[in-house]
Specification:
single chain; 317 residues; alpha/beta; Barnase, Chain D; Rossmann fold; 5-stranded parallel sheet; 12 strands; 31% helix; Glyco_transf_52; transferase; Glycosyl transferase family 52
Amino acid sequence: MRNCDKALFIVRTPFQAWFCERLIERLGISCYDFLYITHNNSQEDIFYYNNLSPGARNSSYVFVKPASFDVFTNLKLFYRVKGWFSKDRYDRVYMASINSYIINSLACSFHDAELFSFDDGTANLVEDGPYYTSDSSFRSRFYSTIFGARPVEQVRKKISRHYTIYRGFNNIVEEARLSYFDGWVLNRRGKGDYSHSAKSKRYFIGAPFHEVMSKAEIDSMLRLLGALRIDGYIRHPREIQPLPIDAPIIDKGGRIAEDVIIDCSSGCRVELYGYLSTVMINLKDYADKKVVFVPEGNASSRLSELALDSGCEIVYV
């Protein structure tokens, strides 16, 4: 990449921002603008925005609280970022959330820019998910029309290169357009090289459980966890209220869960428990044991297949 190229990074999660930090460093990008969109305004959002914004020519942190009806959320977000549609020409645009109406529309509005994408987490690996096929509902087609978003199939074709940490998995573009980064690989610690090899630390990975599980399924998971000694609870940025688990909530200091777990484990073996999340996939080569709780109705889903492919043990609730 030429140092004088103008780049735009559009992110909306802490993990995406973490990935952008590594992209900027690895590709030697010195001239970039940075737009951070969030519906959570979490400690993690603020932490990574503050990390990336000082190096940007222009940057904005846009927090839009979700409305009762998502059409109002999208309209407010469109109004808040409309100034970015008239920014100077960009040579390259980097984004992860290709299915987001506003981000999709903004990225594709720079017709002469080369489009690059990077991982958003497990969404990139679920081949029947929203990053592979456009929602054909009337609502989705209506939103795409009023906001000027392109079908995700068109966006995927436009992507010049996708940057990923997921080796051995299919992604939103074919192998020839993939570039790999190392994530949290085992050789950071060395297999069998533990400073406290006899000890394991168990971490419960939080999630917005009420969005993905029923109350009965959550209660079933809690009963199973009650028989374990959990060393730390890692809260999710969208987790409004932590579950009643007998474990200390770890102060992440704004960092993503993966980095916090590695630091807190202090060379001990690591066991992870929770819903199938991006953290479970990202630490698949680092954690010695990964137990995911999956609703019985999802037993034959792509999520269950992904859990098994990542070396997770599945417990149906």
